[in-house]
Design goal:
Strand order of the largest sheet: 5-4-8-7-6
Distance between the termini: 127 Å
Structural class: alpha+beta
CATH class of the largest domain: Alpha Beta
Largest sheet: 5 strands, antiparallel
Number of strands: 15
Helix content: 40-55%
Strand content: 15-25%
Shape: elongated
CATH topology of the largest domain: Heat Shock Protein 90
Length: 454
């Protein structure tokens, strides 16, 4: 746009920039006396004017755009550092491209925050499920570094902390485990970890990434029970085989003509009777143990006077004690009583009295005592026999375990009496054990809840 102001002034106004609602003009005033000179220098002046105009326009536009972009960059960094923050809505004028960009950044931030919340909930759910499992769960990456370890796995590995990020080899030094992890196929193996823990390990590929997931199951108790069951079957078979073999051999001998010889027949018949009695005792003890294991042995707890019950139980072994000339002394105050089942306690005492009389030396002694110990009563059955070696004391309450098998069978024991004693005492919230007697012999003791004075 060119217009004259008076006669001697030429004014030139050109629009050089229009952005963000702002219009910029370039105004040039020229005196009429100078027009001739300008006419001569018109080409050069035009070029210089165009160059100056371009520089000015670029600088103005750059200045106008850099400020909101700087503010956008700074605010975006704040959003990245803190996902709860958002870009301000007054960064630019309405319908401006920068404002649209800010709105999209806010949209992405909202979406990222929602994704983070979902991931956090899924992580919490996964942790809750993993911690609630009785099986151990270990997740490792491609470098065998631990990514996840639940409480059950920490218990099996003997780890008190959470070693996430640590190499698995620091806690599991079993080559077979790493062979499973490096295998291309899902695999299962049973290994023994630190502390003798038998563990069944299943290894699976991690879904959607490298690494492996290990599922650990403690089978120590299961394997021990399987061993006990195998030993029990073998011991029962062995214990039953002996009396059955004797009964069969004696019967065949009698049928073969020995019944006509009174002297021989008497011995064979006596052997039949003794082994039949032994077989009956074994079967009776097995039935009692089966009922105890199945929870079918019903206990009715009541206040039981220990002295009166001990006198009653002693009548079952008086004949045997008299044959071996074993003296039995009961030193229990009449006021001592326990909370127990009378029939179960009678069976316990009969077993302990019978063992003491059988395995003490001939012409020996057996002492029965009881005394209060806090909220319990300790009952002791002592003898002055050969005693039990230390290596056998921890196992004498196992089924069919004998410190001296030949002597036990000769005495007519089944190898189940002390196991029944342990079951019954523990069923009544008691304890049982054995200690050496000084200077010789053994002390079998049990503790039962005290019922108060009679």
């Amino acid at each position: 746009m060119i217009r004259r102001v008076r006669a001697r002034l030429l004014v030139l106004a050109v629009v050089v920039a229009a952005a963000a609602g702002i219009v910029c003009y370039l105004i040039v005033r020229v005196e009429s006396s100078e027009l001739a000179l300008l006419a001569e220098a018109a080409p050069l002046a035009a070029a210089l004017a165009a160059f100056a105009t371009a520089l000015g326009t670029g600088w103005i536009v750059q200045s106008m755009m850099r400020k909101p972009l700087r503010e956008l960059a700074r605010s975006t960094q704040d959003v990245v550092r803190d996902t709860s923050r958002r870009l301000p809505q007054v960064m630019a004028v309405p319908d401006d491209e920068v404002r649209q960009l800010a709105e999209w950044v806010n949209f992405l931030a909202d979406d990222a925050e929602r994704s983070h919340r979902c991931l956090a909930r899924e992580r919490e759910l996964l942790s809750t499920v993993a911690e609630g499992l009785t099986q151990g769960v270990i997740a490792v990456d491609a470098d065998h570094r631990i990514e996840l370890l639940n409480d059950a796995a920490r218990t099996m590995l003997g780890v008190s902390s959470s070693p996430v990020g640590e190499p698995l080899i620091e806690f599991v030094r079993v080559p077979q485990v790493f062979a499973l992890i490096d295998s291309d196929e899902a695999a299962t193996a049973e290994v023994e970890l630190q502390g003798g823990v038998r563990t069944l390990i299943r290894v699976a590929h991690k879904f959607g990434g490298e690494g492996r997931v290990l599922l650990l199951e403690d089978v120590t108790a299961m394997r021990r029970l399987e061993t006990v069951r195998r030993d029990f079957v073998a011991n029962v078979s062995h214990e039953l085989r002996t009396p059955v073999s004797v009964i069969r051999a004696n019967a065949e001998t009698l049928l073969g003509g020995a019944k006509d010889d009174p002297a021989v027949a008497s011995k064979l018949i006596d052997g039949l009777h003794r082994n039949a009695e032994r077989l009956a005792r074994i079967l009776a003890d097995l039935l009692d143990l089966s009922r105890l294991d199945a929870g079918q042995y019903r206990l009715e707890l009541s206040t039981v006077p220990v002295r009166a019950l001990a006198d009653q139980s002693m009548t079952a072994v008086e004949t045997q004690a008299a044959k071996r000339n074993v003296g039995v002394e009961i030193a229990i105050a009449d006021t001592i009583a326990v909370k127990a089942d009378p029939k179960a306690l009678d069976q316990i005492l009969v077993n302990l009295f019978d063992n003491a009389v059988k395995y003490t030396r001939p012409d020996g002694h057996v002492w029965v005592e009881a005394r209060p110990e806090g909220e319990t009563v300790r009952i002791e059955v002592r003898d002055d026999g050969p005693g039990i070696a230390a290596k056998h004391r921890e196992r004498v309450f196992e089924r069919f375990y004998r410190a001296d098998p030949s002597r036990s069978r000769e005495a007519g024991g089944t190898g189940l009496g002390l196991s029944i004693v342990k079951h019954l005492v523990e069923s009544m919230d008691g304890e049982v054990g054995v200690e050496p007697n000084t200077p010789a012999g053994s002390i079998f003791w049990l503790r039962l809840p005290r019922a108060g004075s009679m």
